Amino acid sequence: MRATAVKYPVHPVYPFIHGAPRVPGVRSIAQTHMTTEHNESRKAKAIALVSGGLDSTLAVRLMQEQGVEVEGLHFYTGFCITEQQRRSGNPKAEGKPNDGLRAGSELGIPVEIVDISKEYLEIVTNPKHGYGANVNPCIDCRSMMIRKAGEVMRERGADFVITGEVLGQRPMSQNRRAMDVIEGEAELEGRLVRPLSAKNLPTTVVERDNLIDREQLKGFNGRTRKPQMALARELGVEDYMQPAGGCCFLTDENFARKFRDLFAHKPDIQLDHDQIMMLTVGRHFRLPGGMKVVVGRDAGENSMIQSLVTRGVIAGGNLIVVEDHKGPMTVVTDGDAADRALAAAITARYSDAREGTVVPVRIWDPTCQEQPQGELLNITVAALDLDPVRI
Ligand code: SF4
Description:
By secondary structure, the chain is an alpha/beta fold. Helices cover 34% and strands 14% of the residues. The protein folds into two domains: 29-249, 3-Layer(aba) Sandwich (Rossmann fold); 281-389, no CATH class.
Protein backbone atom coordinates (compact mmCIF):
# COMPACT_ATOMS: atom_id res chain seq x y z
CA MET A 1 0.00 0.00 0.00
CA ARG A 2 1.31 3.50 -0.81
CA ALA A 3 1.48 6.21 1.81
CA THR A 4 -1.05 8.96 1.41
CA ALA A 5 -1.10 12.53 2.69
CA VAL A 6 -4.73 12.64 3.70
CA LYS A 7 -5.74 15.78 5.57
CA TYR A 8 -7.79 15.22 8.70
CA PRO A 9 -8.77 18.08 10.97
CA VAL A 10 -7.16 17.82 14.39
CA HIS A 11 -9.88 18.31 16.96
CA PRO A 12 -9.59 19.48 20.52
CA VAL A 13 -9.05 16.76 23.11
CA TYR A 14 -12.14 14.70 23.77
CA PRO A 15 -12.56 14.01 27.45
CA PHE A 16 -12.13 10.47 28.77
CA ILE A 17 -15.81 9.62 29.22
CA HIS A 18 -17.76 6.52 29.91
CA GLY A 19 -20.90 5.66 28.01
CA ALA A 20 -22.09 6.60 24.56
CA PRO A 21 -19.89 8.53 22.17
CA ARG A 22 -20.44 12.28 22.22
CA VAL A 23 -19.16 12.89 18.72
CA PRO A 24 -20.97 11.16 15.83
CA GLY A 25 -18.81 8.49 14.23
CA VAL A 26 -16.20 8.64 17.00
CA ARG A 27 -16.00 5.86 19.54
CA SER A 28 -15.74 6.95 23.11
CA ILE A 29 -12.71 5.97 25.14
CA ALA A 30 -14.97 3.65 27.13
CA GLN A 31 -15.89 1.80 23.96
CA THR A 32 -12.31 1.44 22.86
CA HIS A 33 -11.21 0.08 26.22
CA MET A 34 -13.72 -2.63 26.95
CA THR A 35 -12.84 -6.09 28.13
CA THR A 36 -10.11 -8.52 27.29
CA GLU A 37 -12.74 -10.73 25.74
CA HIS A 38 -13.77 -7.85 23.49
CA ASN A 39 -10.15 -7.00 22.70
CA GLU A 40 -9.43 -10.50 21.51
CA SER A 41 -12.17 -10.20 18.92
CA ARG A 42 -10.88 -7.12 17.16
CA LYS A 43 -7.68 -5.64 15.84
CA ALA A 44 -6.06 -2.97 17.99
CA LYS A 45 -5.38 0.33 16.30
CA ALA A 46 -2.53 2.75 17.01
CA ILE A 47 -1.56 6.23 15.91
CA ALA A 48 2.20 6.48 15.35
CA LEU A 49 4.52 9.46 15.24
CA VAL A 50 6.52 8.80 12.08
CA SER A 51 9.62 10.94 11.59
CA GLY A 52 11.19 8.72 8.95
CA GLY A 53 14.06 7.81 11.27
CA LEU A 54 14.96 4.29 12.34
CA ASP A 55 13.38 4.38 15.80
CA SER A 56 9.88 5.39 14.75
CA THR A 57 10.07 2.94 11.85
CA LEU A 58 10.99 0.07 14.18
CA ALA A 59 8.25 1.06 16.64
CA VAL A 60 5.68 0.73 13.85
CA ARG A 61 7.16 -2.57 12.66
CA LEU A 62 6.99 -4.04 16.16
CA MET A 63 3.30 -3.15 16.32
CA GLN A 64 2.68 -4.62 12.88
CA GLU A 65 4.34 -7.84 14.07
CA GLN A 66 1.61 -8.00 16.71
CA GLY A 67 -1.15 -7.41 14.15
CA VAL A 68 -1.87 -3.84 15.25
CA GLU A 69 -3.35 -1.55 12.61
CA VAL A 70 -1.18 1.58 12.46
CA GLU A 71 -1.78 5.04 11.01
CA GLY A 72 1.07 7.55 10.97
CA LEU A 73 1.41 11.26 11.64
CA HIS A 74 4.40 13.28 10.47
CA PHE A 75 4.64 16.69 12.11
CA TYR A 76 5.81 19.73 10.19
CA THR A 77 7.29 22.28 12.62
CA GLY A 78 8.79 24.75 10.14
CA PHE A 79 12.28 23.90 11.45
CA CYS A 80 12.96 20.91 9.27
CA ILE A 81 16.34 21.14 7.53
CA THR A 82 15.29 19.25 4.39
CA GLU A 83 12.12 21.31 3.94
CA GLN A 84 14.10 24.54 4.25
CA GLN A 85 16.66 23.29 1.73
CA ARG A 86 13.79 22.52 -0.61
CA ARG A 87 12.35 26.04 -0.25
CA SER A 88 15.69 27.74 -0.88
CA GLY A 89 16.35 25.58 -3.97
CA ASN A 90 19.31 23.78 -2.37
CA PRO A 91 20.37 20.90 -4.65
CA LYS A 92 20.90 18.68 -1.55
CA ALA A 93 17.11 18.43 -1.25
CA GLU A 94 16.53 17.71 -4.93
CA GLY A 95 14.47 14.58 -5.48
CA LYS A 96 14.29 13.83 -1.74
CA PRO A 97 10.79 12.73 -0.74
CA ASN A 98 9.26 13.79 2.56
CA ASP A 99 10.77 11.45 5.17
CA GLY A 100 7.46 10.66 6.82
CA LEU A 101 5.72 9.80 3.55
CA ARG A 102 8.66 7.72 2.41
CA ALA A 103 8.62 5.77 5.67
CA GLY A 104 4.85 5.31 5.39
CA SER A 105 5.29 3.92 1.92
CA GLU A 106 7.95 1.46 3.14
CA LEU A 107 5.79 0.41 6.07
CA GLY A 108 2.58 0.18 4.06
CA ILE A 109 0.69 2.59 6.30
CA PRO A 110 -1.09 5.87 5.56
CA VAL A 111 0.81 8.89 6.87
CA GLU A 112 -0.70 12.33 7.32
CA ILE A 113 1.48 15.44 7.43
CA VAL A 114 0.28 17.65 10.27
CA ASP A 115 1.36 21.29 10.03
CA ILE A 116 1.96 22.67 13.53
CA SER A 117 4.33 25.41 12.40
CA LYS A 118 2.20 28.37 13.55
CA GLU A 119 1.55 27.26 17.11
CA TYR A 120 5.07 25.85 17.28
CA LEU A 121 6.56 29.37 17.20
CA GLU A 122 5.19 29.99 20.68
CA ILE A 123 7.00 27.04 22.22
CA VAL A 124 10.22 27.86 20.38
CA THR A 125 10.29 31.40 21.73
CA ASN A 126 8.85 30.63 25.16
CA PRO A 127 9.34 26.97 26.11
CA LYS A 128 7.83 25.94 29.43
CA HIS A 129 10.56 23.35 29.99
CA GLY A 130 13.44 25.36 28.55
CA TYR A 131 15.96 24.52 25.85
CA GLY A 132 18.37 21.65 25.35
CA ALA A 133 21.98 22.25 24.32
CA ASN A 134 20.95 24.74 21.64
CA VAL A 135 17.50 26.28 21.09
CA ASN A 136 15.70 22.95 20.97
CA PRO A 137 12.65 22.90 23.25
CA CYS A 138 12.44 19.10 23.03
CA ILE A 139 10.15 18.44 26.01
CA ASP A 140 7.57 21.04 24.92
CA CYS A 141 7.93 19.84 21.34
CA ARG A 142 7.30 16.16 22.17
CA SER A 143 4.42 17.09 24.48
CA MET A 144 2.75 19.06 21.71
CA MET A 145 3.18 16.36 19.06
CA ILE A 146 2.04 13.54 21.32
CA ARG A 147 -0.92 15.57 22.58
CA LYS A 148 -1.98 16.16 18.96
CA ALA A 149 -1.54 12.45 18.26
CA GLY A 150 -3.81 11.75 21.24
CA GLU A 151 -6.46 14.01 19.75
CA VAL A 152 -6.26 12.12 16.47
CA MET A 153 -6.38 8.81 18.40
CA ARG A 154 -9.68 9.80 20.03
CA GLU A 155 -11.09 11.24 16.83
CA ARG A 156 -10.38 8.08 14.86
CA GLY A 157 -11.31 5.63 17.55
CA ALA A 158 -7.79 4.29 17.88
CA ASP A 159 -6.62 2.64 21.11
CA PHE A 160 -3.23 4.15 21.76
CA VAL A 161 -0.33 6.24 20.49
CA ILE A 162 3.15 4.91 19.75
CA THR A 163 6.49 6.66 19.42
CA GLY A 164 10.03 5.53 18.71
CA GLU A 165 11.39 7.06 21.92
CA VAL A 166 14.18 5.16 23.64
CA LEU A 167 14.86 5.67 27.32
CA GLY A 168 18.21 7.41 27.88
CA GLN A 169 18.87 8.08 24.22
CA ARG A 170 18.50 11.87 24.30
CA PRO A 171 19.60 13.76 27.37
CA MET A 172 16.78 16.27 27.43
CA SER A 173 13.60 14.55 26.31
CA GLN A 174 14.26 10.84 26.67
CA ASN A 175 15.09 10.46 30.31
CA ARG A 176 12.52 8.90 32.62
CA ARG A 177 11.39 12.16 34.23
CA ALA A 178 10.97 13.96 30.92
CA MET A 179 9.12 11.00 29.40
CA ASP A 180 6.68 11.00 32.32
CA VAL A 181 6.16 14.76 31.98
CA ILE A 182 5.51 14.39 28.25
CA GLU A 183 3.01 11.59 28.82
CA GLY A 184 1.19 13.62 31.48
CA GLU A 185 1.09 16.84 29.47
CA ALA A 186 -0.11 14.94 26.43
CA GLU A 187 -3.02 13.66 28.56
CA LEU A 188 -2.30 10.11 27.50
CA GLU A 189 -1.54 8.34 30.77
CA GLY A 190 -1.42 4.62 30.07
CA ARG A 191 -2.19 5.06 26.39
CA LEU A 192 1.27 6.05 25.21
CA VAL A 193 3.38 3.06 24.18
CA ARG A 194 7.09 3.27 23.47
CA PRO A 195 7.65 -0.18 21.97
CA LEU A 196 11.47 0.08 21.89
CA SER A 197 11.78 0.77 25.63
CA ALA A 198 8.47 -0.55 26.97
CA LYS A 199 10.07 -3.18 29.20
CA ASN A 200 11.91 -0.43 31.08
CA LEU A 201 8.72 1.54 31.61
CA PRO A 202 5.56 0.89 33.65
CA THR A 203 2.98 -1.43 32.14
CA THR A 204 0.46 0.57 30.14
CA VAL A 205 -3.32 0.17 30.09
CA VAL A 206 -2.88 -1.08 26.53
CA GLU A 207 -0.74 -4.02 27.69
CA ARG A 208 -2.94 -4.72 30.72
CA ASP A 209 -5.99 -4.92 28.44
CA ASN A 210 -4.08 -7.39 26.25
CA LEU A 211 -4.35 -5.20 23.20
CA ILE A 212 -0.64 -5.87 22.77
CA ASP A 213 1.76 -8.41 24.29
CA ARG A 214 4.35 -6.79 26.57
CA GLU A 215 6.64 -9.81 26.15
CA GLN A 216 7.16 -8.95 22.49
CA LEU A 217 8.15 -5.35 23.22
CA LYS A 218 11.77 -4.27 23.75
CA GLY A 219 13.77 -2.91 26.66
CA PHE A 220 16.30 -0.73 24.83
CA ASN A 221 18.12 1.79 26.97
CA GLY A 222 20.84 4.36 26.37
CA ARG A 223 22.60 6.03 23.50
CA THR A 224 23.97 3.00 21.69
CA ARG A 225 22.12 2.26 18.49
CA LYS A 226 23.38 -1.29 18.12
CA PRO A 227 20.15 -2.93 19.34
CA GLN A 228 18.15 -0.86 16.84
CA MET A 229 20.47 -1.84 14.00
CA ALA A 230 20.17 -5.50 14.96
CA LEU A 231 16.38 -5.24 15.16
CA ALA A 232 16.31 -3.51 11.77
CA ARG A 233 18.19 -6.44 10.26
CA GLU A 234 15.89 -8.91 11.98
CA LEU A 235 12.76 -7.15 10.71
CA GLY A 236 14.16 -6.43 7.24
CA VAL A 237 14.07 -2.64 7.67
CA GLU A 238 16.56 -1.10 5.24
CA ASP A 239 15.40 2.34 4.14
CA TYR A 240 15.45 4.95 6.88
CA MET A 241 16.81 8.42 7.54
CA GLN A 242 20.31 8.24 9.00
CA PRO A 243 20.45 9.24 12.68
CA ALA A 244 23.21 11.76 11.99
CA GLY A 245 21.12 13.45 9.33
CA GLY A 246 18.78 14.98 11.95
CA CYS A 247 16.01 17.10 10.57
CA CYS A 248 15.74 19.95 13.07
CA PHE A 249 17.48 23.33 12.93
CA LEU A 250 16.84 23.90 16.59
CA THR A 251 19.58 21.45 17.59
CA ASP A 252 22.11 23.12 15.30
CA GLU A 253 24.58 25.35 17.14
CA ASN A 254 25.08 27.73 14.19
CA PHE A 255 21.34 28.29 13.96
CA ALA A 256 21.13 28.72 17.74
CA ARG A 257 23.78 31.47 17.68
CA LYS A 258 21.83 33.43 15.05
CA PHE A 259 18.57 32.86 16.89
CA ARG A 260 20.00 34.15 20.19
CA ASP A 261 21.62 37.13 18.45
CA LEU A 262 18.25 38.09 16.94
CA PHE A 263 16.52 38.08 20.32
CA ALA A 264 19.43 39.88 22.00
CA HIS A 265 19.04 42.77 19.55
CA LYS A 266 15.25 42.65 19.11
CA PRO A 267 13.79 41.22 22.32
CA ASP A 268 10.24 42.19 21.32
CA ILE A 269 10.32 40.69 17.86
CA GLN A 270 7.24 38.69 16.85
CA LEU A 271 8.95 35.74 15.21
CA ASP A 272 7.44 34.40 12.00
CA HIS A 273 8.54 31.79 9.49
CA ASP A 274 9.96 34.31 7.04
CA GLN A 275 12.32 35.56 9.75
CA ILE A 276 13.25 32.00 10.55
CA MET A 277 13.93 31.36 6.89
CA MET A 278 16.24 34.37 7.01
CA LEU A 279 18.16 32.75 9.88
CA THR A 280 18.75 29.63 7.81
CA VAL A 281 20.24 31.23 4.70
CA GLY A 282 23.53 33.02 4.07
CA ARG A 283 26.50 34.18 6.11
CA HIS A 284 25.49 36.30 9.10
CA PHE A 285 27.34 39.25 10.64
CA ARG A 286 26.59 41.79 13.38
CA LEU A 287 28.56 45.02 12.79
CA PRO A 288 29.85 47.43 15.48
CA GLY A 289 26.97 49.92 15.02
CA GLY A 290 24.38 47.14 15.41
CA MET A 291 23.75 46.45 11.72
CA LYS A 292 22.69 42.90 10.84
CA VAL A 293 24.16 41.68 7.55
CA VAL A 294 23.20 38.49 5.70
CA VAL A 295 25.20 37.58 2.58
CA GLY A 296 23.80 34.97 0.15
CA ARG A 297 26.07 32.01 -0.59
CA ASP A 298 24.61 30.83 -3.89
CA ALA A 299 21.95 31.65 -6.49
CA GLY A 300 19.15 29.97 -4.50
CA GLU A 301 19.97 31.94 -1.34
CA ASN A 302 20.37 35.18 -3.32
CA SER A 303 16.91 34.87 -4.80
CA MET A 304 15.42 33.85 -1.41
CA ILE A 305 16.99 36.95 0.22
CA GLN A 306 15.79 39.23 -2.58
CA SER A 307 12.27 37.85 -2.42
CA LEU A 308 12.02 38.21 1.40
CA VAL A 309 13.24 41.81 1.33
CA THR A 310 11.20 42.84 -1.73
CA ARG A 311 8.06 41.48 -0.09
CA GLY A 312 8.78 43.72 2.89
CA VAL A 313 8.95 40.85 5.40
CA ILE A 314 12.34 42.03 6.71
CA ALA A 315 11.41 45.37 8.29
CA GLY A 316 13.76 48.15 7.15
CA GLY A 317 15.76 45.73 4.98
CA ASN A 318 18.03 47.15 2.28
CA LEU A 319 19.68 45.11 -0.46
CA ILE A 320 23.31 45.41 -1.52
CA VAL A 321 24.89 44.11 -4.75
CA VAL A 322 28.13 44.62 -6.59
CA GLU A 323 27.16 46.02 -9.98
CA ASP A 324 29.04 44.70 -13.05
CA HIS A 325 30.37 41.66 -11.18
CA LYS A 326 29.00 38.32 -10.15
CA GLY A 327 28.48 38.26 -6.43
CA PRO A 328 26.12 37.82 -3.53
CA MET A 329 22.83 39.46 -2.69
CA THR A 330 23.20 40.99 0.77
CA VAL A 331 20.49 42.24 3.10
CA VAL A 332 21.17 44.76 5.85
CA THR A 333 19.01 46.16 8.62
CA ASP A 334 19.70 48.90 11.19
CA GLY A 335 23.23 50.30 11.66
CA ASP A 336 24.94 53.59 10.81
CA ALA A 337 26.93 55.00 7.85
CA ALA A 338 30.11 53.21 8.96
CA ASP A 339 28.18 49.92 9.08
CA ARG A 340 26.79 50.57 5.58
CA ALA A 341 30.30 51.08 4.23
CA LEU A 342 31.53 47.91 5.94
CA ALA A 343 28.53 45.90 4.67
CA ALA A 344 29.30 47.14 1.14
CA ALA A 345 32.94 46.07 1.61
CA ILE A 346 31.84 42.60 2.83
CA THR A 347 29.60 42.21 -0.21
CA ALA A 348 32.46 43.22 -2.52
CA ARG A 349 34.77 40.79 -0.72
CA TYR A 350 32.43 37.87 -1.55
CA SER A 351 32.03 38.93 -5.22
CA ASP A 352 34.26 37.56 -7.95
CA ALA A 353 36.04 40.93 -8.36
CA ARG A 354 39.78 40.68 -7.72
CA GLU A 355 41.41 42.10 -4.63
CA GLY A 356 42.49 45.69 -5.23
CA THR A 357 39.80 46.34 -7.87
CA VAL A 358 37.44 49.27 -7.30
CA VAL A 359 33.84 48.12 -7.79
CA PRO A 360 30.48 49.95 -7.78
CA VAL A 361 28.32 48.70 -4.90
CA ARG A 362 24.63 49.64 -4.80
CA ILE A 363 22.49 49.87 -1.63
CA TRP A 364 18.74 50.31 -1.99
CA ASP A 365 15.42 49.69 -0.31
CA PRO A 366 13.38 47.58 -2.76
CA THR A 367 10.09 48.34 -0.99
CA CYS A 368 10.25 52.04 -1.96
CA GLN A 369 12.82 52.55 -4.73
CA GLU A 370 14.33 51.00 -7.86
CA GLN A 371 17.87 49.66 -7.75
CA PRO A 372 19.35 52.53 -9.89
CA GLN A 373 17.94 55.06 -7.40
CA GLY A 374 19.90 53.54 -4.52
CA GLU A 375 23.13 54.84 -2.99
CA LEU A 376 26.25 54.01 -4.98
CA LEU A 377 29.55 53.44 -3.19
CA ASN A 378 32.92 52.82 -4.88
CA ILE A 379 34.61 50.10 -2.86
CA THR A 380 38.12 48.72 -3.17
CA VAL A 381 37.95 44.95 -2.82
CA ALA A 382 40.09 43.86 0.12
CA ALA A 383 40.65 40.83 2.33
CA LEU A 384 38.81 41.41 5.59
CA ASP A 385 39.11 39.77 8.97
CA LEU A 386 35.44 39.05 9.56
CA ASP A 387 35.75 36.72 12.56
CA PRO A 388 35.02 39.46 15.14
CA VAL A 389 31.70 40.32 13.48
CA ARG A 390 30.62 36.86 12.33
CA ILE A 391 27.57 35.43 14.10
S1 SF4 B 1 15.07 17.79 18.02
FE1 SF4 B 1 13.62 19.34 17.25
S2 SF4 B 1 11.90 18.14 16.42
FE2 SF4 B 1 13.09 16.75 17.74
S3 SF4 B 1 12.12 16.86 19.76
FE3 SF4 B 1 13.77 18.38 19.76
S4 SF4 B 1 12.84 20.30 19.12
FE4 SF4 B 1 11.42 18.64 18.56
